[in-house]
């Protein structure tokens, strides 16, 4: 049984690692964003409660998000294990999650932090560019177009960079996330379930290191 949280700054490669873990271990990948959308679409009581905050432009309180997580973790596809994506973001949420996993008897088995130097992340994140014609996304470092200046999907030649991918915006985003991540890492380190992986290696090697940690359990 693997019940896992992946920690890491934006661009650290959590999404790629998650996909590989799900492929190998066949566990549920639970993203808070998907959970909100699903609960609101299905008009569950917690979904409607969350929607009332979102519609007013307010942040959804931790207690409501936690109720949503509990609702999702009660579903049978999490019985073999799960990866939580986007929750917890704070130690308050981590404490609420402790309560949930205790009640459902689905304790966390691992918290893995993927470490990447901030300068590397700025380079990675600000290398993203998008085709104006079809919206295909590329990355100058990890996923460039096959022919320079030509979109693989539609053959267009017009590209742009999103405002939040510009280096100065990326740097600010990383600072905000770093402040949020540090207390969480401390929290799980004190519990003795935190492992750290070097995220500057190739995606294959990062997954191999993560897999080594998970296969110990």
From TrEMBL:
Alphabetized Gene3D superfamilies for the sequence: P-loop containing nucleotide triphosphate hydrolases (3.40.50.300)
Domain of life: Bacteria
Broad enzyme group: transferase
InterPro entries: Adenyl_kin_sub, Adenylat/UMP-CMP_kin, Adenylat_kinase_CS, Adenylate_kinase_lid-dom, P-loop_NTPase
Binding of Zn(2+), residues: 131, 134, 151, 154
Keyword ATP-binding: yes
Record key words, sorted: ATP-binding, Cytoplasm, Kinase, Metal-binding, Nucleotide biosynthesis, Nucleotide-binding, Transferase, Zinc
GO cellular component: cytoplasm
Domain Adenylate kinase active site lid stretches: 128-164
Role summary: Catalyzes the reversible transfer of the terminal phosphate group between ATP and AMP. Plays an important role in cellular energy homeostasis and in adenine nucleotide metabolism.
Record note on quaternary structure: Monomer.
Entry annotated with the keyword ATP-binding: yes
Record comment regarding domains: Consists of three domains, a large central CORE domain and two small peripheral domains, NMPbind and LID, which undergo movements during catalysis. The LID domain closes over the site of phosphoryl transfer upon ATP binding. Assembling and dissambling the active center during each catalytic cycle provides an effective means to prevent ATP hydrolysis. Some bacteria have evolved a zinc-coordinating structure that stabilizes the LID domain.
PANTHER family reported in the protein's UniProt record: NUCLEOTIDE KINASE (PTHR23359)
Reaction(s) catalysed (UniProt annotation): AMP + ATP = 2 ADP
Protein name according to UniProt: Adenylate kinase
Binding site for ATP: 11-16, 128, 137-138, 201
A molecular function GO annotation: zinc ion binding
EC number of this enzyme: 2.7.4.3
Region (NMP) residue spans: 31-60
Residues the entry annotates as binding AMP: 32, 37, 58-60, 86-89, 93, 162, 173
């Amino acid at each position: 049984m693997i019940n896992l949280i992946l920690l890491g700054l934006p661009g650290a490669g959590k999404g790629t690692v998650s996909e590989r873990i799900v492929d190998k271990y066949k566990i549920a990948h639970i993203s808070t964003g998907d959970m909100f959308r699903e609960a609101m679409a299905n008009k569950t009581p917690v979904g409607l409660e969350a929607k009332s905050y979102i519609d007013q432009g307010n942040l959804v309180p931790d207690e409501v998000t936690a109720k949503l997580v509990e609702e999702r973790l009660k579903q049978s596809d999490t019985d073999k294990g799960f990866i939580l994506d986007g929750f917890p973001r704070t130690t308050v949420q981590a404490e609420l999650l402790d309560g949930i996993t205790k009640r459902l008897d689905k304790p966390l088995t691992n918290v893995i932090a993927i470490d990447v130097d901030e300068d590397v992340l700025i380079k990675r994140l600000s290398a993203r560019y998008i085709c104006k014609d079809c919206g295909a996304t590329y990355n100058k470092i990890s996923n460039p177009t096959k022919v320079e200046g030509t979109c693989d999907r539609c053959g267009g030649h017009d590209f742009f960079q999103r405002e939040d991918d510009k280096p100065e915006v990326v740097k600010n985003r990383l600072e905000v996330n770093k402040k949020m991540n540090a207390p969480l890492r401390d929290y799980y380190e004190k519990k003795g379930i935190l492992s750290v992986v070097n995220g500057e290696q190739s995606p294959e090697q990062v997954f191999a290191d993560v897999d080594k940690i998970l296969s110990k359990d």
